[in-house]
Amino acid sequence: MERRKFLASSLLGAIGFNFASCNRKSSEADAASGQPEHFQVPQYKLNKLTAGQRHSDPSDKIVLALIGAGGWGSNLALETAGLESNAEFKYICDVDDTRGGRAVAELGRIQGYMPQRVRDMRKVFDDPDVDAVIIATPTHWHALAALWAMQAGKDVYVEKCITHNVREGQILAQAAMKYERIFQCGLQNRSAGYNIKAAEYIKSGGLGKILNASVTGLLDGPIPFNERPDEGTPDHINWDMWLGPAPKVPYSVSRNKSWLSYWDFSAGFSFEDTIHQFDLMRFVLGDPGFPRSITCSGGRNALEDNRQVPDNQSVLYDFGNFTVNLLSGDFTPYMYKAPPEIRFGDNFPDWMNNGDKIVIYGTQAMMLLGRMGGGWQVTGRDGEILAQMPGRFPLRDNLQNYLDCIRSREIPNSDIIQGHLSSSMLHYANISLKQGCKQLEIDAENESVINNPGANELARGKYRRGFELPAV
Fold first, then answer.
1. What is the pTM of this model?
2. N or C: which end of the chain has fewer CB within 10 A?
């Protein structure tokens, strides 16, 4: 595989796309076009997604590293290593020494040697033996970690939410094209056979003309948030590196362990989960691009506590010839995700109380669709079942597709462009909420807001000095 030597000095010398740059009178892009960058077509749209030439035989070993060794990251590494003997982990990387121990021990048993435990991801990127990485850090680190990895010649798998703001997705797509890297998103539903069949059924006209889709992402709750006070940083964690691009704030257990409750680190507690079914909705409907407008209402309605992110969000997406209604929150103890016997069996969810479903309404019939193995059923008048297909949990399929594409250099099932689009539509919903529940009119070609300059500023994000996104 072609390698690019990663320069550790890029941390301090990179050209940043930060919040302050939005306020400059001109930039290189502005000078060339005479208009602000966010009113130009994103650079990635001017190129084609490709991943270079095939570099190995299907039997060749793939050397991997895990970046972010929490519970889910460790699970991803163990699932990947269990797929085939020629996929091995050389590194487990986390800034917190208390994380990753289980992964190191279990991987040692699976592959016959223990991976190295490191704190600094730049050591991983500097190693020419590493072919690819799995990034499962908190969301605010996804873009910078993925960019560093791609610039070092590594293929990347990035967990959801793929990005922390709209601009990051545009840059990641541009980087994947520039450096010809495989970029698989942790949106596993695109690798599920039953979802592919659902998309084919809809495309065949089985539902008639699609006029509306309803996406539900309701989690158990409400759960009170008791924010812990600031304290001294424990010796076992490099807090400055944990914060990375985020603003410099003191250590607290709440920020460290409940980062989904803070805007600086996440896209919101419920949205970080709801993105799975939102992306699946887009997939089965043929991956529509940006809508004409996005309007979000809600807030912190169930409990009055110190959590920054909302517990109730209702979003309307106007795509012109159809609409999408999204309901997301964590205030519903009577709603639940499909249990394992559904995800790994031939039964279907109790749709009434299923908290992670999609309903697609056509002029002839409607489809009830469950993510992560929930299957789908098409019903007509009087509840008649017209068609159905059970599902299977697609995590292993998505990880295997990643390994296959590393070898074949084919575009993966859950590519960065679709991951960027699905993430960005949720980012704009959050921006609508932050702007006072205002309707945002979208220029789909430029991926910008037409009627609200402040929304475009928020869509670009901001970065701490020394952790800016490097130029592509």
1. 0.91
2. N
